[in-house]
From TrEMBL:
Enzyme class: lyase
Catalysis performed (reactions): 2-deoxy-D-ribose 5-phosphate = D-glyceraldehyde 3-phosphate + acetaldehyde
Keywords: Lyase, Schiff base
One Pfam family this sequence matches: DeoC
SUPFAM superfamilies associated with the record: Aldolase (SSF51569)
Pathway in which the depicted protein is active: Carbohydrate degradation; 2-deoxy-D-ribose 1-phosphate degradation; D-glyceraldehyde 3-phosphate and acetaldehyde from 2-deoxy-alpha-D-ribose 1-phosphate: step 2/2
Protein family (similarity comment): Belongs to the DeoC/FbaB aldolase family. DeoC type 2 subfamily.
Record's keyword annotation contains Transcription regulation: no
Signal peptide, first to last residue: none
EC number: 4.1.2.4
Name used for this protein in its record: Deoxyribose-phosphate aldolase
């Protein structure tokens, strides 16, 4: 991995020369266009697991965010959250209620108490299965909030490739402006980097103008080195975001994994000039967890990666806990749990 500023504890084999981007359509301007698969770069990736774990353990101790600053960071976290419902019992009514929450994630009285009654605060996106895309698009019409669809055989990525590509195309056609695809983990476990590259490139092509968020399923990848290499290959293939997890694995987002992925994002940006977003997902339900990931982004990637264009948190219950913490900051007391329950 690329060494962090002041932390030469990990290393990555970044190419000596700037990597030439893949030519894409004019409407892709500003997005990561990807580049040719560089197997030499992939092979040179190294991760010192012990050092990465030590560094990740310091994230919550190195920077203390308190009082007004903490409240501001938590409001920012709300704007970077992808409100998510991916359940077998999802209904149009539930999705519409979730979209209402995305439009107004903080209670108006709480927002006024925070001195933010003149601010439009909304979540980063609403994330649903393909069958609920049209419902979400209609419910969010005029809000500017994107709909993200999970696709490509989510959560396991084991459907036939033609079906996975068709699902991506269908979700984009239904109005999803972001597509969260899941890779075939077997490509990583077998070190089949060409197979992974071609798979992600096919999904990127199927997305059209919709942005592609590539879910690695990091809990299934076994090693931090493979997490880094899979992240790098996904970016070479044109990923707009790299994402940790589906939320369905036994182990989902962790700070060591996030550190490794963030440093790979930085190495890619330094080599190509293109910035890729990062999305931790799965098991992030407490405000303190959001602060930890925000701190990691700020220290490893810089201020731009605290904005929803480059940072998202995949969560369903996180906003409820953030509301509780902000209520305590504003009033000195916690509201009853049901006041901030998700719809």
């Amino acid at each position: 991995m690329a060494a962090s500023r002041g932390h030469a504890d990990t290393a990555t084999g970044a190419p000596a020369a700037v990597v030439e981007p893949v030519a894409r359509k004019a409407d892709d301007e500003g997005r990561n266009p990807g580049c040719a698969l560089r197997l030499d770069w992939v092979a040179d990736v190294r991760v010192n697991r012990a050092a990465a774990e030590r560094r990740a353990a310091t994230v919550i101790t190195r920077r203390s965010v308190k009082n007004e600053a903490q409240a501001a960071w938590l409001v920012k976290a709300v704007t970077c959250t992808d409100l998510t419902t991916l359940n077998s019992d999802d209904t149009p009514g539930r999705v519409r209620r979730l979209c209402g929450k995305a439009r107004q994630p903080l209670d108006p009285d709480l927002q006024a108490a925070l001195g933010l009654d003149d601010r439009v605060i909304r979540t980063g996106a609403v994330c649903v299965y393909h069958g609920m895309v049209a419902t979400a698009v209609a419910a969010l019409d005029g809000s500017g909030i994107p709909v993200a669809a999970v696709a490509a055989g989510f959560p396991h990525g084991l459907s036939p490739m033609r079906a996975r590509v068709a699902e991506v195309e269908d979700s984009a056609a239904a109005g999803a402006s972001e597509i969260d695809i899941v890779i075939s983990r077997q490509h990583v476990l077998r070190r089949d980097w060409r197979g992974l590259y071609d798979e992600v490139a096919a999904f990127r092509a199927a997305c059209g103008a919709a942005h592609l968020k590539v879910i690695l399923g990091t809990g299934d990848l076994k090693t931090l080195r493979d997490v880094a290499r899979a992240s790098l290959v996904a970016m070479m293939a044109g990923a707009d975001f790299v994402k940790t997890s589906t939320g369905k694995e036994g182990v989902n987002a962790t700070l060591p994994v996030a550190l490794v992925m963030a440093r790979t994002v930085r190495a890619y940006a330094e080599a190509t000039g293109y910035r890729v977003g990062f999305k931790p997902a799965g098991g992030i339900s407490a405000a303190k967890d959001a602060l930890a990931y925000q701190t990691l982004m700020r220290e490893e990637l810089g201020r731009d990666w605290l904005e929803p264009e480059l940072f998202r948190i995949g969560a369903s219950g996180l906003v409820s806990d953030i509301e509780r913490q902000l209520t305590h900051f504003a009033t000195g007391a916690y509201a009853a749990g049901h006041r901030h329950a998700m719809p």
